Amino acid sequence: MRTKIVAGNWKMNNNLEETEALLAELSAKLPDTKAQVIVAPTFVNLAAAKRSLQSSTIQVAAQNMHFAESGAYTGEISADMLLNIEVDTVILGHSERRAYFGETDELLAKKVKTAVEKGMKTIFCFGEELEDRKADNHFAVVESQLKNALFDLDADAWKNIILAYEPVWAIGTGETASPEQAQEMHAFIRKTIAEAYDASVADEVSILYGGSVKPGNASEIFSKPDVDGGLIGGASLKSDDFVAIIEAI
Ligand code: PGA
What's the predicted TM-score (pTM) here? Predict the structure, then answer.
């Protein structure tokens, strides 16, 4: 059985007090669930988040990291620094990192390789832009994002990979892919992985959907057979909304 996952990507939101307050609310309201619940606060609040969640099942992820071991990379954060504060999960390849910080598939391949070597779990984000979909290029774009960043990994490394399909046109826009569009793409992703590796790798990888998931649309999206959960942006900043999304899985 694939792991069901609901992850909250807080992006550049919440100072220390707000982080602690939101985590206290979430811990208090967390429903009984088989899903793995993950939150990704900003770097400066990761250690505090870990402390707040000491006796909780909620896990903590970073939103990014550098591929190098250490060294002269001003402003960057290494895998070892994250592991040192017991953060063992990292979001890589988010469309905002690609669009605003110039992250390419080639750079992401290096970051994923480092995460794998360090034994970290990666939530790898990818997805097409609106023009790609309009031009009916969305499958080709997604296939090349996967191939360029991930298909050099050994089959074994996929145990630590979680995929997050996030069509860029649906992120923060209020526009969601229909449950059918999500299912169609998730099935395509699984088929592409089965062809590159084998059916067991494809069947075991959790594929999350991300892009304007809300309490009102979550259960329909999560009901699709190849959708194993969600990566939630805006709605993860309000405890009631995030909890309702967790309840929908
Ligand atoms: P959204 O963001 O839920 O606000 O659309 C999703 C994401 O960027 O991961």
Answer: 0.97
